[in-house]
Design brief:
The chain is an alpha/beta fold. It contains six helices and five strands. The mean pLDDT is about 90.
Length: about 130
Amino acid sequence: MRSASELYVVDSAGWLEYLTDEAKANAFSHYLENEAAVIVPSLVLYEVYKQLAKHRGRTVADRFLSQALYRRVVPIDETIALAAANASLDHRLQGSDAILYATARVCQAQLVTANTHFRGLPGVIIP
């Protein structure tokens, strides 16, 4: 059981697994069902909404949005942008991955992802 002070950033793939009840949905539900502990980067809003609208329809995408907006949404500001640039250089992360990782680090949260290219980075949980 996690403490109330722990914060998590769940990446877009994790949200999509959870929302579409895919194979790893249960692993991500552990993090997403505690609304207060989840931080949503604005990039995740974009990526998940777009994928759901494209493949499942705008009604499903709007349902995601209504869930996500109850959480703390974090925009990409200058602090996150610069942290992402450094994370990209230091850890060889692509742009969107660097932004998600930097958002988690700046917000003192753990990044929850199934993407194994994050393996070994501090503050990353791969369920």
